[in-house]
Amino acid sequence: MPDQSIPSARPSTQSAPTPQPAGGHGISRRALLGTAGATGIVLGAAGGAAGYAAAPAQAAPLTSLGSDRAMFHGKHQPGITEGLQARGHLIAFDLAAGAGRKEAAALLRRWSTTAERLMAGEAAPHDDTAVARDAGPSSLTITFGFGHGFFDRTGLDKQRPSALDPLPDFSSDHLDKARSDGDLWVQIGANDALVAFHALRAIQQDAGEAARLRWQMNGFNRTPGATAHHMTARNLMGQLDGTRNPKPIDPDFDRRIFVPASGEPAWMANGSYAVVRRIRMLLDDWEKLSVTAQEAVVGRRKSNGAPLTGDHETSPMDLEKTDSKGEYVVPLNAHARITRPDRNGGAAMLRRPFSYHDGFGADGTPDAGLLFICWQADPLRGFVPVQRKLDRGDALSQFIRHEASALFAVPGGAAKGEYVGQRLLEG
């Protein structure tokens, strides 16, 4: 898990007023808040269920957490540079037997329409489940990508980017093929679990007969506002994870993360590539280590994320500093040392993952870890060289296990009136 990691790349949301739905599209989730509040008052006045507190005299206004909205249309797809969300779902589909380019285009058109409406806090275009009817947009983002096999199935193999070549094998891999790869990938994130689940169901229903589910993974992050002040997120090992993440204010951010407008193939202009890895953390083994030993593995202090040679999270890491015994303060195999961009030819990636916990094994060990998602303009220059170096001697490797892997081409954002991937499918 490279040190250039998780935190929000931008403020957690792009706030905008939630539009009222056009006639015939149903009531917006946000508009229904007032109805829900009024109902609560009536129940309270009538006594409701014995023992429940009386309802407030006025319904509380929708909080900023619920009203925050990300934009569907734009230069880039949503869900890449927005801040970390509290809940996430990752889903991969394979095109159904007999489905080709025509069916794929119709599917992406349906998915784009649904994503635009749900991200605005409106009901799904058809058969809405009403799961999230009381909530606002809650920073919902829905992102779409194409896997390697998608291009063969749609007859578009000549349009497949060379950067989408399969990732090489790594010695740390213990991959479950059934939970890896896929023709189509959808990333859903929101700051409300019901809003995220609502989007998941709508996307699955929209797939219809065109695509079948290959795998799905569920994740979470800390809810925005849970800490007294903004800070880098912690992973399930308890470490601050994301200190060196690239930021949009960096002068070379776009070059490292997004395919240039003049890039190849043309349909990937302003898009990015997502590497998705399910990384199990061997928490029972990790938690047996002392805090000092954990910090030596990572190369940073557990309390505040500071490098072992500094006082603050953003203090420069002095890789040449030695202790009284002449040993490096930041060990040679420390995770933070190995993943530094300046030690990897400038390789950088924008990490935006989710933690996960899927219960316990028969022996009681937790099935928990990180749904690693990293974004880059070229995975052969971003993820691959860093992972190869980690493979050769990262101290953290004995406490993690890579169990699933996928790579997706994520096209640029859809302009108003377009659907995601239209330039590929209709070009």
From TrEMBL:
What residue stretches are annotated with the Dyp-type peroxidase N-terminal domain? Answer: 77-221
GO BP annotations of the record are: iron import into cell
Write down the Pfam families for this protein, in alphabetical order: Dyp_perox_C, Dyp_perox_N
| Cofactor(s) listed in the protein's UniProt record | heme b
GO function term, MF aspect, one? metal ion binding
**Transport as a keyword?**
no
Catalytic activity field: heme b + 2 H(+) = protoporphyrin IX + Fe(2+)
Q: Which PROSITE patterns match?
A: DYP_PEROXIDASE, TAT
Q: Does the keyword Oxidoreductase apply?
A: yes
Recorded GO CC terms: cell envelope; cytosol
Major site of localization recorded for this protein: other
Which portions of the chain have biased composition (kind: Basic and acidic residues)? 310-321
Q: What class of enzyme is it?
A: oxidoreductase
Start and end residues of each stretch annotated as Disordered: 1-28, 301-321
According to the entry, every stretch annotated as the Dyp-type peroxidase C-terminal domain falls at: 232-414
What keywords were assigned to this record? Heme, Iron, Lyase, Metal-binding, Oxidoreductase, Peroxidase, Signal
Q: Write out the function statement from the record.
A: Involved in the recovery of exogenous heme iron. Extracts iron from heme while preserving the protoporphyrin ring intact.
Name-wise, this protein is Deferrochelatase
From what organism does this protein derive?
A: Streptomyces broussonetiae
Q: What is the lineage of its organism?
A: Bacteria, Bacillati, Actinomycetota, Actinomycetes, Kitasatosporales
Q: Which gene does this sequence derive from?
A: efeB
